[in-house]
Amino acid sequence: MNALTSPARDDSAQRLDHLAELSERLLAMARSRGASQAEVSCSEDFGLSVNVRMGEVETVESTQDRAIGVTVYFGQRKGSASTGDLREESLAATVEQACAIARYTEDDPAAGLADPQRMAREFPDLGGWHPWQLDADAAVDLALACEAAGRDADARVRNSDGASVSSSHGLSVYANSHGFVGRERGTHHSISCALIAGTGEGMQRDGWYSTALARERLEAPEAIGRRAAQRTVARLGPRELATGQYPVLYSAEVARSLIGHLLGAVSGGALYRKASFLLDHAGRQIFPDWFSIEERPLLREGLRSGAFDAEGVATADSALVSRGVLQRYVLGSYSARKLGLSSTGNAGGIHNLEVAANAGDLTTMLKDMGTGLLVTELMGQGVNPVTGDYSRGAGGFWIENGQIAYPVDNVTVAGNLKDIFAAIEAVGSDVDRRSHIGIGSVLVGRMTVAGGQ
């Protein structure tokens, strides 16, 4: 069989049946031991990854993991235990351990399964299953081709941090004592390359990668290598930048970090702990009035699509931000109860997000900005989730007259996230589809940029 073709036999449906039967057995064990409610998660994950560097194989890793988690409730007392062992005595011991923990914990008024009427009833095929019969030899060949294309693309590329190829697929079942049984299966494939250009203290590093649910959606290995080389040599000869207030344009691959900070601030855990700079901000304007974010969990072939969340709650498309106004928080059942609200179907995290664009591609946005800083890399974790204070190391390019003038590094971009959100002037159409957060480049009208001058 060609290593780039799909498996001759796909037994995922039978394996999901087995996980579902196992889940129901574990729920029966929990009920027999007096649990008033119970939930079970069973998963199997398989993967292959290879790494090469300077034309030589560094690592080949094949993984196969199984995880079984059992959570029981005795009233509002909760206990959890897990195992990877399918022997009957191990399964029984896992349930018993979860029950023993629950019997000795304190009542928690927010504990318990999600509301039964919120359970998903429909399970559409969301197109997340694209297995790739990739063997180690073929994966190595792809990685070597990727790195070689990058190293050969420009004489200034003198070294390499290597190229990687990975492919994985996973099966999971979530079941609970409401009678809910949900099955999911998904695949994930990626190719990446990181290169080093220049010599001595003038060396620069950059790279590129492609990731997709289906191997057909991956960029060609040689194209990835050449893109990595192009990005790396473009960073050679960086200059210092004078400290000041400038427009800052976040390229699409780093712009999604801004949305990540938003999600952290509107997540239930941060809110009920009062550790968020957006506490009590639902219904308030935090972005410009043209800005919107839609959650689309049922998007076909979305990187985080799902008909139900980690508690079995049915998902549905909904606005997170509309006309600049925060419409809701991101809640599972536990955090919702702590806040006196209802689950938003986000137990386990957010699904696919689409940030609406109001501008053209990156080239157009550079021309519209005229002069300022294009950020293509962010370093460090300098964000205070309680106050919203933001200060991160950055690298990128200084823009003059709408064109790249020269590369810059070792600068810091700073502000407060509330001010940054309000100062967003444009979102580009150049969406980076390598993430579940679909967003183009983002122009912030003015930020503090600390340079070396």
Automatic annotation (TrEMBL):
Gene3D superfamilies: PmbA/TldD superfamily
Record domain Metalloprotease TldD/E C-terminal: where: 243-451
One matching Pfam family: PmbA_TldD_2nd
Superkingdom field: Bacteria
Domain Metalloprotease TldD/E central: 130-236
Gene Ontology molecular function, alphabetical: metallopeptidase activity
Residues passing through the membrane, by range: none
InterPro entries linked to this entry: Metalloprtase-TldD/E_C (IPR045569), Metalloprtase-TldD/E_cen_dom (IPR045570), Metalloprtase-TldD/E_N (IPR002510), PmbA (IPR047657), TldD/PmbA_N (IPR035068), TldD/PmbA_sf (IPR036059)
Family: Belongs to the peptidase U62 family.
Listed name of the protein: PmbA protein
